[in-house]
Specification:
Mean pLDDT: 95
Strand content: 15-25%
Bound molecules: alpha-D-glucopyranose
Number of strands: 23
Radius of gyration: 26 Å
Distance between the termini: 75 Å
Helix content: 40-55%
Oligomer: single chain
Largest sheet: 8 strands, parallel, barrel
Structural class: alpha/beta
Strand order of the largest sheet: 1-2-5-11-12-13-14-17
Low-confidence stretches: 1-15
Amino acid sequence: MANEKHGEPTTQSTSRRRQPLVRSAARARADSVFLRRLRRHHDELRWLYMELYDNGAMFAELCDQMKAFYDDRAEALRRLDEQREGRAWYRDRDLLGMQMYIDNFAGSIRGVEDNLDYLRHTGVNYLHLMPFLDTPADKSRSDGGYAVSDFRRVNPELGTMDDLASLAEKCHERGISLCMDFVMNHTSDEHEWARRARAGEGEYMSRYFFTGDQGLIDRYTRDVPQVFPTTAPGHFTYLPELGQSVMTQFYPYQWDLNYRNPRVFNEMMYNFLYLANQGMDVIRIDAVPYIWKQLGTNCRNLPQVHTIVRMMRMISEIVCPGIVLLGEVVMAPVEVLPYFGTVEKPECHMLYNVTTMATTWNTVACRDTRLLRRQLETVCGLPREHTFLNYLRCHDDIGWGLDYATLSDWGMEEVPHKRYLNEYFQGHAEGSTSRGELYNADPVTGDARFCATTASMCGIEAAGFEGDAAAMDVAIRKDVMLHAYLLSQSGLPIVYSGDEVGQVNDYSYHDDPERADDSRYVHRGRFDWALVDRVDEPGTVQQRLYDALRHLERIRRGEAVFDADAEMRVVDYGDPAILWVERRRDGRTLHATFNFSDEARTVWMPERAAYADLVTGEKDGDLESFELAAWDFRWLLR
Ligand code: GLC
């Protein structure tokens, strides 16, 4: 009545009065969510920050900025955060990842968006987009995008931040998560900070490590191992314009950031939060073991690195708890595990299973599963929350980081063994069908790493070149078996783009002066869409491989024995050519057997019983033993 008297329709007047109220209620709720998260971590975060930097004003600034990034976070992302908070979504067994270079796959970010149907068809629902931030256009100065010149700008050759946001949105609509690299150890020498440092601005020089003291450089060189001993020897790069050297552990154009300076830490955390707010789900922290330097140490995995990663974890849990931190720790297992942190103080959510990857290829070359069994047993003995990203190949070389103490007990010494592996995979050793190239062969230590695609390492390139159908059968079988073995492990399996269609090495980089010095480009070829066309032609290499992998992935999604929480163990089977993995869940047991040898083997089951073959779908009511062809596998469920 009162409203009518004032001549105002009831609904309008209430909505007018309510709107700001509703908005402020939503805001109050959001603020309280932020405060709850901040309160949870504040004391520890402050403690660690002050321990490292002893700078209250900079800590206060960090807290203000966290709130600002939280306020900026899109509503849809905040909702996702709430759904994911406290739930280890990245451990779901239906996740299947792929890593790809945007330009190789589809030219640009929009091109990727246009080809999401293909990705959906492959079954991929996690996409790692290789570095796409601004980087020098000259490829000999970009390290494949790992030399970032602007953390807030997309490489214009690939698109814009808006394209990225649009891709993220489309991916989320289709249930695809996105991963990107956060290259935090260094910037490109074309980054604004580096330019200003080079111009002699002290504030910016203090963000890197400058020295004119040759004695210090020599000491450093004595204590710290080389990352790229042949392609980029040395740890410092001399800048004639300043008469000083700057620390460059990777390439001379990648300047190491000085995390002793709180300004560097704060600014890099703001960059991290900015990128998280673009709709990323997983942030891969690149080369993280290297971020803290201390003269007199080997400058790897120092305690301060863990302090920084722990702070980063808390910062992300306060602002964007849906984000997963994936640590790139390419180190020996004893160095890798601490990056998970502890149950009370976790650091990374997920780590690369690098030792398992290298040991797998060692097993292929030696046709002896003993070292792999040990390695998998070690992984099985870890807390189940420790989640690994499993892979056969990635964009980098394979460094032969194996358990040489054990190999030496078995009579295999490190240097000759590495030499054998490199000979084998180049196709020079007896019985090898692999093709590929060495990487950073060090004439001083005799050390070398290796580059090639999965298909080339399995013999698909050689068999195709020689037109040898029988050899091709074996090569495809080996490739499929290795993927079945990959999918038999707990954790997130990642396929390298092109592997699903058996893409082989690309030697064309030799003719490109900007890339010719870096043999990793041999497995970073342009995605060959002509191979995709052959997927539908029965009997082609591509169809056989692609369909087999799809089938395996579907089985993995459908069977609870593949859960991350399933019990996994390695069976100590008498024949060293056979790898036997057992997974148990809900009273059912998967017996996954793999023949890592060039001859067929008879495999004996633990007892005569009924088993279902998950791949053929057939049931054998009374199975005691079976023949396993060379490089074949079986998934038997009981
Ligand atoms: C990581 C990347 C590698 C790059 C290096 C330096 O190890 O995987 O490709 O060269 O970091 O950023």
